[in-house]
Amino acid sequence: xxxxxxxxxxxxxxxxxxxxxxxxxLLWQNAERRRRAYKPNEYxxxxxxxxxxxxxxxxxxxxxxxxxxRLDALKAKGMKPSDxxxxxxxxxxxxxxxxxxxxxDFAKLKGDPMVDKLREYRQALITAAVTGxxxxxxxxxxxxxxxxxxxxxxx
Length: 155
Fold this sequence. Notes:
Elements: H1 3-13, H2 20-34, H3 43-60, H4 64-76, H5 84-94, H6 106-110, H7 113-131, H8 149-153
Helix pairs in contact: 2-3, 4-5
């Protein structure tokens, strides 16, 4: 598939939203599909931020290489990433009012061996806890002694 056809295909499948409510509904629908993997109290701290990050990653994906190349070129000219001109130049490339200058994206993280090692480590901890090899009752967070509020006022 040529670049031109790929760009045309991406444009034809881009969903345009008429309102913020439609965007929120789409995010919640996606979040509902992933709900069972997390405890209810973790849901808003894990699922929704990841969904938003993934959506931003998808929006910025087609222009990612151009943004990074332009940033490198501007840095080579002595400009700093915090310069307003850099901000304007990178926004112009993305066509949206934001950009991402990280070299990482979800595709790279998915193939990262460190992510696989973390998953393996997490699974080993879970297995050890379930089989009794790890005494979770003996593992406690260190207690922090805090002064009584009135003690903090004393000289």
